[in-house]
Amino acid sequence: MQSMTVVTGHVRTFYQLLFNTLLVSVINFTVWFAVTFWVYLETRSVFATGVISGIFLVLTASTGIWFGSLVDGHRKKTVLQGSALASLVLYGAAFAVHLSVPEQAWTDPADARLWAFVLLLMFGVIAGNIRTIALPTLVTLLIDADRRDRANGLVGTVSGTSFLVTSVISGVLVAFDGMFSVLVLALAVLALSLVHLTFVRIPEREPEHSGAARPGVDLRGTIRIIAGVPGLTALILFSTFNNFLGGVFMALADAYGLSLVSVQTWGLLWGVISTGFILGGLLVSRTGLGSSPVRLLLLLNVALWAIIVVFPIWASIIPMAVGMYVYMLLMPYAEATEQTILQRVVPYERQGRVFGLAQSAEQAASPLTAFLISPITQFVFIPFMSDGGAGADAIGSWFGTGPDRGMALVFILTGVIGVVATALALASRPYRALSRRVAEDAPATEPAAAPA
């Protein structure tokens, strides 16, 4: 197999940025996971942990467009340094609060000092999200157009590795001494990241603020750029709809898995399943995405939704584990494909804002569905499939009955909707228009080379 090639002289820069991003992502996600674990252990309040998740999702969805404007309006190295510095300052302030507040304050979920501490940490984590927008634009800057799909696969590998390592580190540190070691490690890693970035040279020009590259958020101009690419609006709406349906999985996966196996088995199994995301990213970096990324993206979605349809048919952890591993294996292909399409058709000076807008739209969809589907499942589908319910009477003899079968039915119906929606997208005019645009020889805009 061919290895990934990059713009001459920039391969080391790309790998250095990947390594730096891996370090920072691991520590930011460790802080997020750790504070969630710690707050529950201190307060025993499920409501408090739910609020933390809600804060993270709302902030992620609401800051994407602004972060995108920062990425487009400044040198990428400056943005990366600013992100790390902001997290470092916020974690430092949280550390000061942690040292000054008496222990008994942490046990009260209504204590303002607890939530001041949590908010400082969550804003520090969110500041790191700038990197998720900046990194695809750096792929455009540093990687030859015909190898960007492979580089996007490596980006996916870094993301998967971050999540896999995070759950282990955060649990061990919180068990050891609460949040103290977590914060010490976070401050040390972010300081190391800033020092490392000072020695990384990114070959880029100062952004030009004229014409299509006006400074600021400029939401209207960003929407105009998206609308100017045939089929691109439809792609973002399709991805948002997919995330809307994906909220079903977010809401029910843990409950369904825990209805089949013990919590210890489920935790271990999820760790194994997560390795599929890392392997998938590595495969993308080796195989690439082929010559028709738009078609590949939709075919991947057909496969992903088909998995959601098939594995719940049996009330067994084995088909779920196999299905979820294949799902995780394919996800990096889907994410890398979407990034490659946007890198291909969006002008470089606008990519940050477009990636940010897409992130905001897509991130807002999943929690909305998760919020809606939980009560619907609890009060409609679970009674429907319980003994005496209409569904149990109709299909219970072969499908099974009980709460887990109610959740399984929700999965299957969601998967069917996803397959039908993707099939319609494959037959649509916007799909054909975007496919033709992506197939054109020249990307929308290539980044200008930095002066020697």
From TrEMBL:
Protein keywords: Cell membrane, Membrane, Transmembrane, Transmembrane helix
Membrane-protein topology: Multi-pass membrane protein
Pfam families: MFS_1 (PF07690)
UniProt cross-references to Gene3D superfamilies, sorted A to Z: MFS general substrate transporter like domains (1.20.1250.20)
UniProt-listed InterPro entries: MFS, MFS_trans_sf
Subcellular location: Cell membrane
SUPFAM superfamilies assigned: MFS general substrate transporter (SSF103473)
Transmembrane segments: 21-41, 47-67, 79-101, 113-142, 154-176, 182-202, 223-245, 265-284, 296-322, 407-427
Principal localisation: membrane
PANTHER family, sorted: INTEGRAL MEMBRANE EFFLUX PROTEIN-RELATED, STAPHYLOFERRIN A TRANSPORTER
Protein name: Multidrug resistance protein
Native organism: Actinoplanes lobatus
